[in-house]
Description:
Blueprint: E1 3-6, H1 12-22, E2 27-32, E3 46-50, H2 56-66, E4 71-74, E5 81-82, H3 89-117, E6 121-125, H4 138-158, E7 164-170, H5 177-183, E8 186-187, H6 193-203, H7 212-224, E9 231-234, H8 236-242
Helix pairs in contact: 1-7, 2-3, 3-4
Amino acid sequence: MNTVLITGCSSGFGLEIARYFLARDWKVIATMRTPREDLLPPSEHLRVLALDVSDEASIQQAIEAAGPVDVLVNNAGIGLLSAVEGINMQTIREVFETNTFGTIAMTQAVLPQFRERKAGVVINVTSSVTLLPLPLLAVYTASKCAVNGFTESLALELAAFNVRANVVLPGRAPTTRFGENARNRILIPEAYAGLAERIFAAWGEPSEVTLAEDVAEAVWRAATDPNSPMRIPAGADAVALSR
């Protein structure tokens, strides 16, 4: 039985990915900053572990507790909506600590076992904003573009060891808490208020969106299909952008 370790499972994509793999008889290591087993259906194949991807000691403890894994899904992420001029560097660093450096640190933590077994898959969840940049998302987009580039080079490094690396690119997902969390981090300077108002009005209600199940399906494809493309868009809007 294969084992998947997923970061950021307290809500949204991570929670749905964990449910998806459990339903297909995988062992699931669901990690989150504050563990809550009640979020997922009871299963002998489920373990819920504490993990803060921005904390090196937390990563090491979680990896040791998890034991051997076959697939790592780097899903944990935070959003930020703001004009660059209105963001202090501490906030920028926080975004990169989770979205970028956390992904790299988690990958480093599992690579020795993957390399030694000559098997394993690293799946990094980024965003469709890396396909079509949007205003007020420059820092968030930069943190995700960095992961795309990281994964592309990583895939080349690991090919000799029969280890794969993939990127899943979700589109806009209004049904998850991610958008809500991003809205809680809106930092719009007064000089940009008019621009922001026009942008929010233009965004409106999208005709095509991404569901959490779309992302889970894309992650499953990356995990189980050796012939899957390195970049996999998830959700109708992301698929349309990729085309």
